[in-house]
Structure to design on (288 residues):
């Protein structure tokens, strides 16, 4: 009787486990199942980790924090953090906040923060502050990206020397034939449609500037973990392309976040997007 009860209990447990709804599944670039430990180990061996997120996806943000914590432990604190969501001319106030010279109220009212800052990015800043980890504001100030969208890269040449400290050194390399930039034009209607050819240039100046500040703050023996929209590093383009133009010797690990209807296997469209792909259910709730 006891054996029957034991088998019955085991059967119920197995059925319950099969009925669980996974919140994510990690795959490698070829679509083979991977896991968080393998991701941590690969990240710890890298000079730079490019973590591409879905901006409104809670799983992306949770895993960013968990990976950062695990990497901090694995590297004995030898990490640097940075993010697209903070613009380079906000570096001073970020440093003041991390050193506890500025309180939350002042920081949040004076820094140009994204609408989902408190839920999604504040935990990363707090971790950096509490762990004495350097956090770099890597993105170009949005006013200069808008200038490129209006006037192309030539518009940046008219900026003052002070302003140019906040962007990638000029002139900026640019390959309009990169699939990511080319696809952006096609998606928005092409040069003959409602979008001018400066739109992908505005994207490129963001990528170039983020790469510039990552390299500027890279430390030997440390891992720089960078957070950004997944489009900025998908298919080993964007930020990674600019990093490789200057430092092809660096070990870089890329992470893509993608939503799928099923997590049983990686969708064909998501294979090869990054070294690791985090597949998340399309039904996952959004942070904003």
């Amino acid at each position: 009787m006891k054996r029957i009860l034991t088998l019955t209990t085991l059967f119920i447990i197995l059925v319950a486990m099969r009925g669980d709804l996974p919140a994510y599944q990690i795959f490698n670039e070829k679509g083979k199942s991977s896991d968080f430990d393998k991701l941590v180990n690969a990240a710890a061996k890298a000079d730079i980790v490019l973590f591409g997120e879905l901006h409104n996806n809670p799983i992306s943000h949770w895993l960013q924090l968990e990976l950062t914590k695990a990497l901090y432990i694995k590297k004995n604190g030898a990490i640097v953090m940075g993010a697209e969501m903070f613009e380079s001319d906000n570096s001073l106030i970020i440093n003041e906040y991390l050193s506890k010279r500025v309180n939350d109220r002042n920081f949040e009212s004076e820094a140009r923060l994204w609408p989902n800052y408190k839920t999604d990015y504040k935990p990363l800043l707090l971790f950096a502050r509490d762990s004495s980890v350097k956090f770099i504001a890597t993105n170009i100030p949005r006013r200069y990206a808008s200038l490129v969208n209006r006037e192309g890269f030539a518009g940046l040449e008219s900026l003052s020397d002070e302003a140019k400290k906040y962007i990638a050194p000029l002139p900026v390399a640019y390959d309009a034939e990169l699939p990511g930039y080319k696809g952006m034009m096609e998606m928005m209607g092409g040069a003959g449609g409602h979008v001018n050819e400066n739109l992908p240039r505005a994207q490129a100046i963001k990528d170039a500037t983020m790469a510039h500040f990552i390299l500027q703050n890279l430390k030997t023996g440390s891992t720089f973990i960078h957070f950004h929209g997944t489009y900025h590093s998908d298919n080993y383009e964007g930020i990674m392309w600019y990093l490789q133009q200057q430092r092809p010797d660096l070990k870089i690990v890329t992470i893509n976040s993608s939503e799928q209807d099923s997590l049983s296997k990686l969708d064909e469209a998501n294979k090869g997007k990054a070294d690791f792909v985090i597949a998340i259910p399309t039904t996952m709730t959004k942070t904003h």
Summary: The chain has twelve helices and seven strands. The mean pLDDT is 92.
